Amino acid sequence: MAEIFDPKPVEEKGFEIDERILKLAEKAEENCSAAFAETDRIARLNGEKVLRAFINNKVSAACMTGTTGYGYGDVGRDTLDKVYADVFGAEDALVRHTFVSGTHALTCALFGVLRAGDKLVSLTGTPYDTLEEVIGLRGSGNGSLKDFGVEYDQVELLPDGKPDVGEIFKKVKDAKVAYIQRSRGYSLRPTLTLNGIAEIVKAAKGANPDIVVMVDNCYGEFVESKEPLQFGADLIIGSLIKNPGAGIAETGGYIAGSKKLVEQCAYRLTCVGMGKEVGCTLNQNKLMYQGLFFAPEVVASAVKVATFTSEIMTLLKFECFPKRDEKRGDIITAVLMKNADNLTAFCQGVQKGSPIDSFVTPEPWDMPGYDSQVIMAAGAFNMGASIELSADAPLREPFAAFVQGGLTYPTGRMGILVALQEMFERHCLRLF
Ligand SMILES: *Cc1c(COP(=O)(O)O)cnc(C)c1O
Hints:
This protein has helices spanning 19-31, 33-56, 75-88, 102-113, 131-135, 165-172, 194-207, 259-269, 285-315, 340-352, 409-425, and strands spanning 92-96, 119-122, 151-154, 177-181, 212-216, 235-239, 253-257, 320-321, 333-336, 374-378, 390-394, 400-404. By secondary structure, it is α/β, with parallel strands linked by helices. The strands form two sheets. It has a seven-stranded mixed sheet with strand order 1-7-6-5-4-2-3, sandwiched between helices. It has a five-stranded antiparallel sheet with strand order 8-9-12-11-10, with helices on one face. The model has no long low-confidence stretch (mean pLDDT 95). The structure holds pyridoxal-5'-phosphate (PLP). Pyridoxal-5'-phosphate binds next to helix 4.
């Protein structure tokens, strides 16, 4: 007699998450449905834009291989610059794995464009922590912009996140570069959307038509369906271990904008006269192409995880920025954790729910470039990649955890639930 095939169901090795947290997650997800639909709409537009740029620039199999040595005539590198330029609405771009970080790319842009005696004005308050030393706000005699004779000033955003047009007018009149940070970074200021950037650019160029508007685009790429250059900015800069690398690019950064400005930055990255013509790509080209190709979808996953996090934490009575339905300018959700214990439990929980190094416990440490201790959960394929699920937090008032990433929605969502379970078990969470 023929045996009847009885497929044994694969044993479900679930996560041990409290029923009440799971229920809350379901509710949060329901509440996010409109926001998720909008995220999918944006991802489609961006995906089409990226595919169009690949086709228009005739990306070929030859582009996937790299060069060694000087890297003369690297067709993959030169074509990737064109693809990035198209996607971001730029004349030219400089996409290199030799940018060691976003800060390095930003530094290259600042030193590439500014000269002794010039003035730099930040129009979005104090820039991201790591730039303070670059500008010369902390330390001296170390080769900062200030050491090289570049003056610095800043204009705060108004409390509602709108530009202070009067102050901008006063301070940019004699400035060479106006600097805008798109993402909130480690601050709780309202998210800057592209419309917000357009308003700031209009104010700055109204007062000084020759001013170069530089945008720190970190965490902002593909969150909306356009980019800052299409709203009047002259130069955008970002990191490849964030949005545009999609967790696939292993390192690197990019600068995009007008041909002239990009050339000045390339002269700073390599040498005057050589610029973009040199720089071998080793085995990085394919990863950078693939990263860009996946980026719209991966950014959408990260935005959904961020939206979900904001909603479930709000249901648990933690204040979050931005709220579920607020228009997003970046992939970050800031959660006010109220105290250091909650913050530490949450970050350590996120690490437990990460694919890599789930078994290690992150501790607060003195990270280079930051002036308070920072705890960082980052169980990522690429070290420190924050397009992957990650939670970082400077250990200072108001104990905000900055959550970002999630290469896929299901894994990012579960990472957050593991973190909530950790908080619950450490008596940092009340369930009712
Ligand atoms: C990540 C980031 C940077 C650059 O940081 P790196 O860690 O050097 O890549 C700069 N500005 C903002 C707003 C960022 O989020």
